[in-house]
């Protein structure tokens, strides 16, 4: 495990001390990672600025070679990277292995888009004046500051770094202080594939390091994923230099289950939507809306299935729910259990630490029913394995309940009436809507939220465009004098 920052293609001692990275399963310190100071961030930004001078002149095809090499290397190290991800994050190992496949696929996908960029870098524009011609040229935005959270440590890095490098930008990336270890491993991979020095810089550190990066005058664009509160600070930091900014923030996504839904499938997707990755998923469908007719049967079955989930060491085979990422997150979710008690909510299942696990940040899969829309558990993002449910009678009522939120990241609708489901999907105020499923994510499709869930879209060609500027080049092609001042 790395003890230095990755700057300008080399391992550099951090001047901000160290960060304790804790294994959430054992509560023991796993590693002391380097903590970047504002001065270290400055060195990284200078390195990225220097590298941009040449990286921006490479072709997409040349950049694709590096992206494919990174994908290949991630695949070859899949087992060890996944294990490290599980050790620092607590997600079950099969989920971490799946993440590594997604990381490699994301680098491959943006390699394709980088190659395609060569064929559409310049497009001519039809003008209504015969003496002029014009073209639109796509160019990289510049040096990007990328700040990511802890729930999908290496995958969030891939979503940021792959499109940025594909576009011809250079990057200074700061992973979460809770999970910096796999990001640092990507520094080793960058060295292995001989990525030119300074194209990618990885600076680990806490809030201060993030703020130093967000406020640095040498950054042209900020790409942030994290909480709404931090997103607000990043947006404020961007105002000074009028920096281009994209924000992927939190959510409180609804899942609507109609009477005609297939019960087995509904239970599966409800559970996948909230317990996958321990519910530490921005798009987790954490608000369940069930049509009254199916509600008693569905809740009874949901309780039964929740109580069967195997909780424990995420490296152990068969475990489906690992510990929350940190003591802080564990306390935050437990605090919601206390709020639920104060509010007098009906607990269907869970609501406590599992009796057999005295150590580690473990909590049971938890479901509350009949939760009013005024409850803090209904309105606030909990970011843990906690589902809140309500019932509805009509589709109009369901939509009103679903759309009554400050967030608008994801939503799901389960019904065997596809026509109705498609209509509901169009009416939902969310950037991502799943029909008859919840959470499957593909790097080809756009990702991002309405309302306070963020600004801009990642993934797909939208993800690449985030990192491109459009330049107009207009030419006067005539020998005739223009004749305005000089007659
Ligand atoms: P967070 O906002 O606390 O931290 C995110 C990152 O910002 C970390 O790297 C942190 O060190 C850094 N940071 C903290 N203060 C900063 C500041 N003042 N300036 C700049 N950077 C700063 O979020 P978190 O707890 O790491 O992650 C959980 C949140 O992320 C949830 O709200 C979740 O919904 C959101 N999230 C959103 C998406 C999405 O795609 N929309 C994906 C994953 C997570």
Walkthrough of the structure:
The structure is a single chain. By secondary structure, the chain is of the alpha/beta class. It folds into 2 domains: 5-249 and 453-473, Aldehyde Dehydrogenase, Chain A, domain 1; 254-435, Aldehyde Dehydrogenase, Chain A, domain 2. The protein has helices spanning 38-55, 60-76, 78-89, 93-120, 153-167, 181-192, 207-214, 228-240, 263-275, 295-306, 327-343, 376-379, 395-403, 418-427, 460-465, and strands at residues 5-7, 10-12, 18-22, 29-34, 122-125, 132-140, 143-147, 170-174, 200-202, 221-225, 244-248, 253-257, 285-291, 346-349, 366-369, 386-392, 407-408, 410-414, 432-435, 450-451, 454-455, 468-476. The strands form 6 sheets. Strands 14-15-16-13-12-18-19 form a 7-stranded mixed β-sheet, sandwiched between helices. A 6-stranded mixed β-sheet has the order 9-8-7-10-11-21, with helices on both faces. Strands 5-6-22 form a 3-stranded antiparallel β-sheet. Helix 1 (38-55) packs across helix 7. The protein starts with a strand and ends in an 11-residue tail after the last strand. The mean pLDDT is 98. The structure holds nicotinamide-adenine-dinucleotide. The site of nicotinamide-adenine-dinucleotide has 29 residues, from helix 7 and helix 8.
């Amino acid at each position: 495990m790395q003890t230095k920052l990755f700057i300008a293609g080399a391992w550099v001692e951090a001047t901000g001390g160290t960060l304790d990275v804790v294994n959430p399963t054992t509560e023991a310190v796993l590693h002391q990672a380097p903590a970047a100071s504002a001065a270290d961030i400055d060195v990284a930004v200078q390195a990225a600025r220097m590298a941009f001078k040449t990286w921006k002149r490479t072709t997409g095809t040349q950049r694709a070679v590096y992206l494919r090499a990174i994908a290949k290397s991630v695949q070859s190290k899949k087992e060890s990277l996944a294990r490290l991800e599980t050790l620092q994050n607590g997600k079950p190992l099969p989920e971490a292995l799946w993440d590594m496949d997604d990381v490699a696929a994301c680098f491959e996908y943006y390699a394709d888009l980088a190659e395609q960029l060569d064929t559409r870098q310049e497009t001519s524009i039809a003008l209504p004046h015969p003496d002029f011609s014009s073209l639109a040229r796509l160019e990289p935005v510049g040096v990007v500051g990328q700040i990511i959270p802890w729930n999908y440590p290496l995958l969030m890095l891939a979503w940021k770094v792959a499109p940025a490098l594909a576009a011809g930008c250079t990057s200074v990336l700061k992973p979460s202080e809770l999970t910096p270890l796999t990001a640092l491993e990507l520094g080793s991979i960058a060295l292995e594939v001989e990525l030119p020095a300074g194209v990618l810089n990885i600076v680990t550190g806490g809030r201060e390091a993030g703020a130093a990066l967000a406020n640095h005058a040498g950054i042209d664009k900020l790409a942030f994923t994290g909480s709404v509160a931090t997103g607000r600070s990043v947006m404020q930091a961007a105002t000074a230099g009028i920096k281009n900014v994209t924000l992927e923030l939190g959510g409180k996504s609804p899942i609507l289950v109609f009477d005609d839904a297939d019960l087995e499938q509904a239970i599966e997707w409800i559970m996948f939507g909230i317990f996958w990755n321990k519910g530490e998923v921005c798009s987790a469908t954490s608000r369940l809306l069930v049509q009254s007719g199916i509600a008693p049967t569905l809740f009874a079955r949901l309780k039964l299935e929740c109580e069967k989930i195997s909780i424990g060491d995420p490296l152990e085979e068969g475990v489906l729910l690992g510990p929350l990422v940190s003591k802080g997150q564990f306390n935050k979710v437990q605090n919601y259990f206390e709020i639920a008690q104060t509010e007098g909510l009906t607990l269907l299942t869970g609501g406590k630490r599992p009796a057999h696990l005295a150590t580690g940040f473990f909590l049971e899969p938890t479901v509350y029913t009949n939760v009013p829309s005024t409850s803090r558990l209904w309105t606030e993002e909990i970011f843990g394995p906690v589902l809140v449910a309500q019932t509805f009678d009509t589709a109009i009522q369901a939509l009103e309940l679903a759309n009554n939120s400050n967030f608008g990241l994801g939503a799901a609708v389960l019904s065997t009436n596809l026509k109705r489901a498609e209509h509901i999907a169009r009416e939902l105020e969310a950037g991502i809507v799943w029909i008859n499923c919840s959470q499957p994510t593909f790097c080809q499709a756009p990702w991002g939220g309405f309302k306070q869930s963020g600004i801009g879209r990642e993934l797909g060609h939208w993800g690449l465009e985030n990192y491109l500027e459009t330049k107009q080049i207009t030419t006067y092609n005539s020998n005739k004098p223009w004749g305005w001042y000089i007659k």
